[in-house]
Design a protein that fits this description.
Strand 2 and strand 3 form a beta hairpin. The protein is of the alpha/beta class and 242 residues long. The chain has one domain: Rossmann fold (3-Layer(aba) Sandwich), CATH 3.40.50.10990. Helices cover 36% and strands 21% of the residues. The C terminus is likely disordered.
Length: 242
């Protein structure tokens, strides 16, 4: 069952004038600004729009089923990727992971995909394209970020932690191959009860990128040549295979 009109009203009323001390080192505070129905090719969702006090970026939660006051909710943190999500770039696996996660969540009892405005692993769109240019000349994805003066991953999960709290989620089963996402959420007070691997087979353009993430950034991609999404029924797994 989706969030009811009463639950939606409660969330909106609670967040209308929400202002707190913030989460994380940057003291980020978010509030729910709007909620609407969102039928999609991946199932029936409700979209929750968030405002934050740090930079005005608007983040989104795509919610399937009733997740308020629920434990062990499947959750995917997805960082914005214009080239992958919108254009279908083959240099990364972002769009494949986005669609696979939504398809899986759409078949589960409940779940959330948080869409975070952290383009290019947190370095922004312009620097991401600069990093691509360096990769075109032989650097790997980690070396390119470092050459531009960044860490290999500049993302922060304070917004995600606050979003989950605003949605009254008790604990999550995190869809990720990235241990830093788990430790990042845990350090911010989110209870992560389990990890659900989400592994997409590589193509000729992103294999080196994925291998670099595994070897240098610690991503758990041991089964890189076949899709994996544990904790699913055979029917759900078939969606990822298709």
């Amino acid at each position: 069952m989706p969030l009811t009109h009463l639950q939606i009203k409660e969330l909106l009323d609670e967040n209308r004038y929400h202002d707190c001390n913030g989460v994380g080192k940057d003291k980020i505070c978010v509030r729910i600004a709007a909620i609407a129905e969102l039928p999609s090719r991946f199932g029936m969702f409700q979209v929750v729009a968030f405002w934050n006090n740090r930079d005005g970026k608007e983040h989104a939660a795509f919610v399937h089923g009733d997740i308020t006051r629920e434990a062990d909710v499947p959750v995917r943190l997805h960082s914005e990727c214009l080239t992958g999500d919108a254009i279908g770039s083959l240099r990364c696996d972002c769009r494949d992971q986005l669609e696979s996660a939504l398809a899986a969540i759409g078949k589960m009892e409940n779940g959330i995909l948080l869409y975070l405005r952290q383009e290019g692993r947190g370095i922004g769109f312009l620097n991401k394209i600069r990093a691509y240019g360096l990769q075109d000349h032989g650097l790997d994805t980690v070396e390119a970020n470092i050459a531009l003066g960044f860490r290999d991953d500049e993302r922060d999960y304070s917004v995600a932690a606050h979003m989950l709290d605003s949605l009254k989620v008790k604990s999550v089963r995190l869809m990720t191959n990235n241990p830093k996402k788990i430790s990042g959420l845990v350090s911010l007070g989110v209870k992560v009860s389990d990890r659900i691997p989400l592994i997409i087979p590589p193509n000729q353009y992103n294999r080196f990128y994925l291998e670099t993430k595994m070897e240098k950034s610690g991503h758990l991609l041991e089964q890189i040549d076949r899709p994996v999404l544990e904790g699913m029924t055979p029917e759900q797994a078939e969606i990822i295979q298709d």
